[in-house]
Each structure stands twice: as C-alpha cells, then as structure tokens.
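In this section we walk through a basic example: taking a raw amino acid sequence and producing a predicted 3D structure, encoded as discrete structure tokens. The instruction is simple. Fold the sequence below.
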Amino acid sequence: MSDLKRREFIGGAAASLLALSRLNVGLKKIRGTNMSGSIPYRSLGNTGEKVSCIGLGGYHLGQSHLQEADAINLFHAAVDRGINFSDNSWDYNQGESERRVGKALKGYRDRVFVMTKFDGRTKGSALQQLDESLQRLQVDHVDLWQFHENIRLEDPDRFFADGGAAEAMLEAKKSGKTRYIGFTGHKDPIVHLRMLELADKHNFRFDTVQMPLNVMDAHFRSFEKNVLPVLVSKQIAVLGMKSMGDSHILASKTVTPLECLQYALSLPTSVVITGIDSMQILDQAFKAANSYDKLTKADTAAILNKTAPVAMDGKYEPFKTSPIFDSTAAHPEWLGYNPQA
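The resulting token sequence is shown next.
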C-alpha cells in the first residue's frame, strides 16, 4: 500500500472519530436490558439480535488441561447464568473445541448464539471447513460465521478475489448454513480498514468485526482509535477480544484481570469474548459484566495512565508484533492455496 493510501485510511478513520461524539446514543442502542437477571445483553450491530456482553471463548474449552466433562459443565453453567454467545473456530485445538461445544449444545441450542470461524481463503476450502464445523458442532447452521485471521495486507484482496472466501460466505448465507457473517484479525488496524474499504467497493455487508480491544491497544497500533469509530458509524457489531492478551497484559503487573475486562466492556462493544477454563474465571467474568458501568472517567484515565509507559512498543501485545498467534502462518495448508505460488 502506498504512503498516500495509508494516510487516506488513517485520515478516514480519524475523520470517523466524529462518530464517537454520538457514542452516548450508540451505547444506548448497543446495551440492552439484563434479560437473564445476571448479565447485561447488548444489540449485535443492526442485526436485531441481543447477545450477552460476555462471550464464552471457544479456544480454552478445547485445551488438553481441561477435561471434556469439565468443559461441558462450564459451558452449561455459563449459559444457565445468562451467557448466550459462544465463540469458536474451525482450527481451535485441532477441532476439539468445536467437538466439545457440539456435545454441550445438546438441549441448549435454542439458548445459544453460535459463532465459529474459518481459515480458507478460497471458496472451496472455506465451504469445506464450514461443513466440518457444522458436523463437529452437531448443528445444521451457525448464527455467525467469520473469516479468521485477517492479518496480512493481502488478505482482504484475497477474500474478495474471484473464487475467494467472499463467495463462500454469500453461498453459505443463501443456503441457510449461516445467518450472519463477519471477519476477525489481531495484527494491525490497517488490515481491518482495508477489508472495510473493499467491502464498500464490492457492496458487501459485514454484520460483525472482531478485534483486540484492551488497555494496551489504546496506546499501540490501536484498533480502538482507528477501527472502532468506523464500525460504530457503520452500525457493524464490535466483538472485542484479547482483553488480557492471553495473560501477556497481566504480565506487565500494571492492571488486574477485572480492570482489563471492565475496560473492554466500557467500550461500544456488542460482546467481549474471554477465555474461561474454571468456575472461578467464570465468576470473574460475571463480576466484570455487572460492575464495568461503575468505572468513572477518572478510573479509566487512571488505567490508561498506568499502562501507557509499558504499552508503547507492543511488548505486551505479541499478537501484533510477532507471529506466535498467527495460526494460519504456522499452517499455510489451511488457506486453501499455496501462498508462495
């Protein structure tokens, strides 16, 4: 991308900060009533759906240190207490995350908004991964299907290329295998802005966008500053992730887990997805969900002031500055094409 176009992207994002002047109105639309009595619900963009402000991360549920029965019990406990948003991905733990959630959904499907992601960059590979996900999840459709790891500057162009994943998404919607579509990414706001620019050019509507939103992101390659205002202005649902950066942010010794979750929840997100692998961590998520609105402007300023000195070089957001979180880089065969060809 040329420097001029890069400046245009950033300039456009900066201009869209005007949308944040309407955040009080926007937040009222995003934040719904406490439908379950134990967790707030919010609007999912302009879809008309109501989802819990906390989403149950799928990756942690499939990890080997957690027994399958314990993962299923955690899933049921979360749903019974009001969490209705289930996050997952085709590649999480070699499919084990989807398999476990599939078992947990028995008797619970009508109470859960089911999301999963795919890695294929071609129409054929994406649709094959969708069918595998549906089989593992034991459902005939998902509520939300997302293009995973929009992390390379060429990913948006590949997505919209002839025979690309955009075609797979449209076909999946037409066939009823998904109700809504979105994309995710954790590397750089520029890549998200490129995807949104191309979506506009192709008259393609994303229902959701998932991205890192946390106390460090506010200072470094900020999705909050550059992408969030654009999504608010377009009424695209914001799915926050990496509120603790998979514990890397906590390693800075500047903030607590509760502060991390409260900060992310105080932004105009529809859902903040967090990994939960114990009842204690589940309780922590509910505590944050029911206390984030008590954060004052002074509290938020204090959080940002104490994280700023350690956030500027991205050390505590290694998903932005290193390849260790880039699963599709480690497994290029998942892309459905040879990236070296």
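Looking at the output, two observations stand out. The radius of gyration is 19 Å. The chain has a mean pLDDT of 91. In the next section we compare this with other chains.
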